[in-house]
What we know:
mainly beta
Amino acid sequence: MIQEIKSQTLTAKNFTPFGDILDASGDPDKIINQGMCGRHHNLAKLDFIAGKAGISIFNAKPRSMPLKLEMMERHPDGSQAFIPMHQKPFLIVVAHDKNGKPDTPISFISEPGQGINIHRNIWHGVLCPLHSPGLFAAIDRIGDGPNLEEHWFQKAWTII
Length: 160
């Protein structure tokens, strides 16, 4: 039997248990820079145990659907934000925790221009751009000690 997960549209309502959506749609919170810039303020709840926030650039190779999901990871010491540096959708896979392991994965496809912030200690798949370029700004914890836990499934899931 194939274990399939059907992807859904990324919305604030369905992603809330896992993190924040970084999105500039709707009215901005403030108009700044002499009226020429709308500011959508404080969209992510960055959360770090020790260490500090760092900004990195990731350049990931595009993935294709259906996607074979063999592994998920989580970061117990810090949240992790991914902000696309392009106007292409990408795949997000997350899961609730079930006794220290990921429960059934849940997948989302972003809208162009959306980014995400995955809360601390949330199981998630790897960065999955669906188109080239796979260029993302990432904001996450920089600090000493391991901040990565991986779980490899005995039987892979298929994301459609």
